[in-house]
Amino acid sequence: MKSLVALIKREYLEHRGAFLYAPGVILGIMTLVLVFGIASNRFQMHQEIGVPSALKFFEFGFLAVAALWSMYLLAALFFYYADAFSADRRNNAMLFWKSMPVSDFKVLASKSLAGMTILPALIFAAYLITGVLIYVVTMITAMMLPRLGVPGIFEFLSSGFQIAAFAFVCLVTALLWYAPFFAWVGALSTVFRRWSIPLAFLIPGLVGLAENLIFNDTGPRAGYVLNYLNERLKFGADNLHLEREIFADAQFNAMAMIPRFLATVDWAQLVGGLIVAALLVYAASEYRRRIVAT
Amino acid sequence: MNDLAQTTAAPIVSARGLKKHFGRTEILHGLDFDIPAGRIYGLVGHNGAGKTTTLNALLGLTSYEGTVRVLGEDPYQKRASLMQNVAFISDVASLPRFLRVRELFALLTNIHPNFDQAKARGFLEGTDVKMDARIKNLSKGMIAQLHLAVVMAIDAKLLVLDEPTLGLDITYRKRFYRRLLEDYMTEERTLLITTHQVDEIEFMLSDIMFIRDGELILHMQMETVSSKFSQVLVRPDQVAAATALGPIYSETRFGQTAMVFDGVDRDRLAPFGEVTTPTLSDLFVALMQRGPAK
User: Fold this and answer.
1) What distance in Å separates the CA atoms of residue B213 and residue B26, rounded to the nearest whole number?
2) Residue A264: its pLDDT value, please?
């Protein structure tokens, strides 16, 4: 267990650029823009905005950045898995890690777990910090549009906590939902290195094309494979109609939203996907064990 | 061909019928050898002779045919557990370059149960390698020093070095081997080393193995080498008589003829000229051009 944690830490050290420094730079730029806007009095809010209160403005902003950070995280993780599974070969460090008393499966499992734990946690921390910026923007907006009112700090904190809790549950579920896709590109990377990125799309596309050519007109439009993948890529949060919750008068209620969200998840697909992900990581580790290390 | 040490203790390394194919090409042609504990072995061969493939098989880095046991285990099936008691350097450039030295030590402390961080720090005292230095910023010589400090801080029964000083200048090479002898070979450990600079390691070897085109052509203790092989700088008027005794190798350098004899009594050779023990490099050149030593 100690060695597994150390190997996960190694992943953090190797890939902190995309998960610590880059989000830090993004936050820094956002803060600079905000400070510059305040200092130069450039904030203008002459038009009415369609939210009933400053608190709702904050909730809307905090949820919107959750979506943006989630997109950043999923993209970063895709490239992380495409890189991490072959990084030891690319860095010429394979022989060093093979001289350690850890199996190839443990090494790849640590890479997979890092992408599911410490690395998303860093992005989530960046998201929480963004909440402070959203709060500042909300306060400025409330001063410019007195109709919105200025709620107390505890109301903000309560809303922030509710939304962060909801975003956290969505994030964890999304990571588990997309785990087989990450494992797929990771396993391809073990064999094809950087070419795993186009191949991750090309191989399913070719399989779908072959299905359409061979079994023409016998299945659904575009074929079973591409239809399945299309459905499998859709995530539960898409069907929640969050705007209704945002534009309602009541404060965002995570305790009500989380069960609603969890009810939209196809748990059989999620568990099946995790099994596929584990099998892909195992297959990749067996390939890694067999290649002559160079 | 073999002068295997007679010992009742189980050998550290045992190979029987070790073969390796790359595609249809057989690289190793059924090697048989034992390496007893507490010896310093040199494995010498020309480029492509099969040295690294042999070491890779012993270290569990590649599959093979035949039987190999290292510390009683099948290295290909049990590489991870075996590495608790086996340390190796297969490429001095294989240290993870994204880490700082202290980060590397901290990780190894948790990954390798037999790694002693205090020892590693001690080995680096007096060198130019600083704990806060990034490995990618170190010179090749400093990386070699760091890698040696890492493996010497691992309490291993077997240390395997594959061209550990490749690309280093003579100063670093000499320092590398001196530290290895003075700081590491103080307990009963076994060392297996390959290098092209055989003359530089000759003083420390207890046993030597020559490999040519995937076959062992010499495997004997160094004391036996000096009693079995002789080199004579033959006077010009004695060349014909010396040739009649069947040298295994003859070469004329700057007007002097040097001949290497296998198993010929030195008293019989003395009348032809100065009799010495051939250096390993002279013996290597001699044996690469004839059949196995009898």
Assistant:
1) 10
2) 87
